[in-house]
């Protein structure tokens, strides 16, 4: 049986469970449950703190896990990223009070507060910067005004928390994070793991694309196909109406209205867009 770690709470928990449910896996109904068995797919889900997930997967005690890239890096675990899951996007950045730190070259000798000492320590070691890392559990943005640190290094999503603490970002992001599927080399090589990976890839495609269907005069097919090349090639069907054909193609969700405008201009009619519920490419 495949054993998978899923965030039990925090920013990634709801979206991770939602994605697994869309991929056809059973998920817990009570948010307090710590385990959920899916007998149909022969999978067991363990709900764990996202910070601990890389440890369980890295040790080989669990086969696969969903966590944040920043948490994976921070853990120093030998687990590896196998798929970017497209949610939980955030950057990890340094921040300080305005005018106190111009760029990351000025970090030497500073006190840096963070809940991610592995990420920050790795960044400093790589650049041979000697600074003091102060490990805090959370709400690290308070550390500067309370005099515990000169700089913070933390997750930034909207930037609201930094703004409210009177801090500004310094330098380029230390890393770009998002939710990722992780495994340890060789611990998830079986058919069930391959099936999970394909199902999650299918969910990503179903979220990114819509299905566009339209009718077009046959002599405009080449121009229409150039606008809707699909992923491999558009599907063409004859219409009862002489000289017209129906075209069906997957189109990126964000592009579909522009593509429909262009097709209409070209002479296409009866343009219909539908969501893709699931897919396997
Ligand atoms: N707005 C956000 N705040 C914190 N983490 C976020 C945010 N958006 C995405 N993430 C990602 O979520 C993961 C952290 O989740 P985790 O559950 O440990 O912390 P949290 O969401 O801050 O929850 P809590 O602090 O309540 O325990 C990281 O990978 C982080 O990059
Ligand atoms: O850029 P933003 O949209 O403001 O989000 C980022 C903030 O959210 C998280 O804090 P959280 O509320 O989880 O508290 P914590 O620091 O105690 O984890 C994170 O640690 C940042 O502080
Ligand atoms: Mg937090």
UniProtKB/TrEMBL annotation:
Main location group: cytoplasm
Alphabetized CDD domains for the sequence: PBP2_HisGL1
Catalytic reactions on record: 1-(5-phospho-beta-D-ribosyl)-ATP + diphosphate = 5-phospho-alpha-D-ribose 1-diphosphate + ATP
Activity regulation comment: Feedback inhibited by histidine.
Pfam families given in the database record: HisG (PF01634), HisG_C (PF08029)
Entry GO MF terms: glycosyltransferase activity
Residue ranges constituting the ATP phosphoribosyltransferase catalytic domain according to the UniProt record: 49-202
Location(s) in or outside the cell: Cytoplasm
InterPro entries the record matches: ATP-PRT_HisG_long, ATP_PRibTrfase_cat, ATP_PRibTrfase_CS, ATP_PRibTrfase_HisG, HisG_C, N-reg_PII-like_a/b, N-reg_PII/ATP_PRibTrfase_C
Cofactor: Mg(2+)
Pathway membership, UniProt: Amino-acid biosynthesis; L-histidine biosynthesis; L-histidine from 5-phospho-alpha-D-ribose 1-diphosphate: step 1/9
Domain Histidine biosynthesis HisG C-terminal: 206-277
Record key words, sorted: Amino-acid biosynthesis, ATP-binding, Cytoplasm, Glycosyltransferase, Histidine biosynthesis, Magnesium, Metal-binding, Nucleotide-binding, Transferase
Keyword Magnesium listed: yes
EC annotation from Swiss-Prot or TrEMBL: 2.4.2.17
Family, similarity comment: Belongs to the ATP phosphoribosyltransferase family. Long subfamily.
Record's function text: Catalyzes the condensation of ATP and 5-phosphoribose 1-diphosphate to form N'-(5'-phosphoribosyl)-ATP (PR-ATP). Has a crucial role in the pathway because the rate of histidine biosynthesis seems to be controlled primarily by regulation of HisG enzymatic activity.
Name by which UniProt lists this protein: ATP phosphoribosyltransferase
This protein's encoding gene: hisG
């Amino acid at each position: 049986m495949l054993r998978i770690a899923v965030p039990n709470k925090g920013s990634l928990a709801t979206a991770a469970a939602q994605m697994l449910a869309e991929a056809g896996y059973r998920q817990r109904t009570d948010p307090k449950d710590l385990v959920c068995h899916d007998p149909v797919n022969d999978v067991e889900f363990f709900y764990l703190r996202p910070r601990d997930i890389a440890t369980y997967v890295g040790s080989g005690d669990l086969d696969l896990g969903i966590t944040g890239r920043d948490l994976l890096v921070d853990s120093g675990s030998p687990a590896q990223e196998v798929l970017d899951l497209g949610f939980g996007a955030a950057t990890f950045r340094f921040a300080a009070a305005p005018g106190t730190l111009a760029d990351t070259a000025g970090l030497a000798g500073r006190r840096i507060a963070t809940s991610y000492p592995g990420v920050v320590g790795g960044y400093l070691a790589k650049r041979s910067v000697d600074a003091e890392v102060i490990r805090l559990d959370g709400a690290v943005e308070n550390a500067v005004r309370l005099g515990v640190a000169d700089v913070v290094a933390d997750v930034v999503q909207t930037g609201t928390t930094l703004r409210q603490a009177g801090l500004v970002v310094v330098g380029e992001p230390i890393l770009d994070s998002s939710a990722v599927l992780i495994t340890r080399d060789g611990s998830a090589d079986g058919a069930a793991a391959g099936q999970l990976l394909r199902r999650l890839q299918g969910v990503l495609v179903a979220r990114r694309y819509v299905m566009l269907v339209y009718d077009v005069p046959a002599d405009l097919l080449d121009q229409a196909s150039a606008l809707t090349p699909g992923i491999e090639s558009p599907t063409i069907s004859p219409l009862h109406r002489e000289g017209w054909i129906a075209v069906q193609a997957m189109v990126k969700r964000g592009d579909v209205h522009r593509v429909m405008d262009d097709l209409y201009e070209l002479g296409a009619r009866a343009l219909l867009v539908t969501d893709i519920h699931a897919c396997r490419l």
